[in-house]
């Protein structure tokens, strides 16, 4: 499959799509910086009084349940429905699904009431949603999934499913892809999963093919992380260098893409 990574990144940079985030308090600032570094325009807003208005005008909506409570949950649903009404694609990150009942039930409620375009979580979260118990500790995954689970989730929930981890599994129910870029050091930065969501949402804003947009987001983020790691002495410098490498991405960097497609 031919993917125009570089052309699509240029489209993000020239269009500067608005990415409306309902992003957890832990990662809010980093997700905004990552979004800017790829060339899109972030707004972090979760007040129930404004989310419908913003989601309706955005180019993509990113719902991340990381620091949920009653008010946030109300806003997730309001924003998601407003996005649906206006044909704005929606990415959902089920942070900590399986860790508590509130998290699992909230994700299922959103999937039931909102038409989610891309469901992206780590192995433990996504295996929880596929009915496998005990694979999550807080927000951390305790195991790696596989393409079959991604395909099952895609079909069951009518989404493009993205399962992150040492290898990332992407499925839209028909086509599948495995991305093997990245570095284990990403596990030592909080929010690496949340941040890759911002990059995927930026590609979703300019590419209607959700499987390809997901792969483009994963590959872009993870190649930047590989380059950043070479310049870093630990997680703190990795995070700073990662934002720089996203900003400084070159077309030749995409030669590093490690991707396998399954039709
Ligand atoms: N062992 C690993 N090797 C390479 N990349 C990894 C590894 N673990 C996670 N990643 C990458 O880090 C990012 C976050 O994934 P993950 O850790 O699964 O999410 P989360 O932060 O939500 O738990 C993804 O881009 C993923 O591919
Ligand atoms: C630590 C933590 N606690 C609530 S949200 C959050 C960030 C989770 O980020 P990620 O899903 O990328 O690991
Ligand atoms: Mg996560």
TrEMBL record:
Alphabetical keyword list: ATP-binding, Kinase, Magnesium, Metal-binding, Nucleotide-binding, Thiamine biosynthesis, Transferase
Catalysed reactions, semicolon-separated: 5-(2-hydroxyethyl)-4-methylthiazole + ATP = 4-methyl-5-(2-phosphooxyethyl)-thiazole + ADP + H(+)
InterPro entries, alphabetized: Hyethyz_kinase, Ribokinase-like
Residues engaged in binding substrate: 44, 191
GO biological process, one term: thiamine biosynthetic process
Domain of life: Archaea
Record-listed E.C. numbers: 2.7.1.50
Enzyme class: transferase
Keyword ATP-binding among UniProt keywords: yes
One Gene Ontology molecular-function label: ATP binding
One Pfam family from the record: HK
Recorded metabolic or biological pathway in which this protein acts: Cofactor biosynthesis; thiamine diphosphate biosynthesis; 4-methyl-5-(2-phosphoethyl)-thiazole from 5-(2-hydroxyethyl)-4-methylthiazole: step 1/1
Cofactor(s) the protein requires to work: Mg(2+)
SUPFAM superfamilies given in the database record: Ribokinase-like
Positions that bind ATP: 120, 164
The keyword Magnesium is assigned to this record: yes
Family affiliation: Belongs to the Thz kinase family.
Biological role stated in the UniProt entry: Catalyzes the phosphorylation of the hydroxyl group of 4-methyl-5-beta-hydroxyethylthiazole (THZ).
Protein name: Hydroxyethylthiazole kinase
Organism: Vulcanisaeta moutnovskia (strain 768-28)
């Amino acid at each position: 499959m031919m993917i125009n990574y570089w052309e699509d990144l240029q489209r993000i940079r020239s269009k500067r799509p608005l990415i409306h985030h309902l992003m957890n308090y832990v990662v809010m600032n980093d997700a905004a910086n990552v979004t800017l570094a790829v060339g899109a325009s972030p707004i972090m807003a979760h007040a129930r009084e404004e989310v419908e208005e913003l989601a309706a005008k955005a180019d993509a909506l990113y719902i991340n349940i990381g620091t949920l409570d009653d008010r946030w949950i109300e806003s997730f649903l309001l924003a998601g429905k407003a996005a649906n009404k206006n044909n704005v694609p929606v990415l959902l990150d089920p942070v900590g699904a399986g860790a508590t009942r509130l998290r699992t039930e909230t994700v299922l409620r959103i999937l039931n009431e909102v038409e989610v375009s891309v469901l992206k979580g780590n192995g433990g979260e996504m295996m929880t949603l596929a009915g496998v118990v005990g694979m999550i500790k807080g927000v951390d995954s305790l195991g790696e999934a596989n393409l079959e689970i991604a395909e099952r989730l895609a079909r069951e929930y009518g989404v493009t499913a993205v399962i992150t981890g040492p290898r990332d599994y992407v499925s839209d129910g028909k086509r599948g892809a495995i991305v093997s870029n990245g570095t284990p050091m990403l596990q030592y930065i909080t929010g690496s999963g949340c941040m890759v969501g911002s990059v995927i949402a930026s590609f979703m804003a300019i590419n209607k093919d959700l499987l390809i947009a997901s792969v483009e987001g994963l590959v872009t983020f993870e190649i930047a992380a590989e380059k950043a790691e070479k310049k870093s002495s630990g997680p703190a410098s990795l995070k700073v260098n990662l934002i720089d490498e996203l900003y400084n991405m070159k077309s030749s960097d995409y030669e590093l893409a490690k991707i396998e497609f399954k039709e």
